[in-house]
Amino acid sequence: MKIYTRTGDAGQTGVIGGRVDKDDDRVEAYGTTDELNSFLGQAMSFMDPQKYPDLLLDLLQVQHELFDCGSDLALLKQDLRPYKVTADMVEALETWIDKYDAETPDITRFILPGGGTVSSTLHVCRTVCRRAERLVVTLARTQEINPEVRRYLNRLSDFFFTIARTANFREGIADVEYIRSAEVFKRKS
């Protein structure tokens, strides 16, 4: 099989159920989830398997689920096949958020993205995830989507925030609070 097909040379690409322009909102949405997956792979490559065995397993699952998101976003009509992203995936993210959040110290103010290499790269993942979510919201205004993808991406950005803090904690690096922030977060109970 050849890698190149030449079918996109005129500015269109194949999606599940037809062809669309390469700058279509649908392509922008699933293309950004693919970009996110690449940044996530980069973040994982910076993780010491001895320090992050649990997180590496969870993130590998997220990588597969991001492919599921892209697949659902590339689907023109649901009647072509069932959606892949489910409410269970969102609930799993919530469980992971709670688990990793329990590992970190309380915060009361906004924090600046950064710290160690792992944390910094996970913050990039968080912001690309938010962009993907915005693009999915735009797409949903005019085209049919799986609403669970939007929920998944919303929760996933929270997950990236949480594990960026976890990474700093495991590396012994303190989060840097945004000094002009009021206290906006409640302490863990």
Automatic annotation (TrEMBL):
This is Corrinoid adenosyltransferase. Belongs to the Cob(I)alamin adenosyltransferase family. GO terms for molecular function: corrinoid adenosyltransferase activity. Keywords: ATP-binding, Cobalamin biosynthesis, Nucleotide-binding, Transferase. Transmembrane segments: none annotated. Pathway: Cofactor biosynthesis; adenosylcobalamin biosynthesis; adenosylcobalamin from cob(II)yrinate a,c-diamide: step 2/7. Pfam families: Cob_adeno_trans. Gene3D superfamilies: Cobalamin adenosyltransferase-like. The lineage of its organism: Bacteria, Bacillati, Bacillota, Bacilli, Bacillales. Coiled coil: none annotated. It comes from the Bacteria. InterPro entries: CblAdoTrfase-like, CblAdoTrfase-like_sf, PduO-typ. Its EC number is 2.5.1.17. It catalyses: 2 cob(II)alamin + reduced [electron-transfer flavoprotein] + 2 ATP = 2 adenosylcob(III)alamin + 2 triphosphate + oxidized [electron-transfer flavoprotein] + 3 H(+); 2 cob(II)yrinate a,c diamide + reduced [electron-transfer flavoprotein] + 2 ATP = 2 adenosylcob(III)yrinate a,c-diamide + 2 triphosphate + oxidized [electron-transfer flavoprotein] + 3 H(+). The keyword Nucleotide-binding applies. SUPFAM superfamilies: Cobalamin adenosyltransferase-like (SSF89028). Residues 3-167 form the Cobalamin adenosyltransferase-like domain.
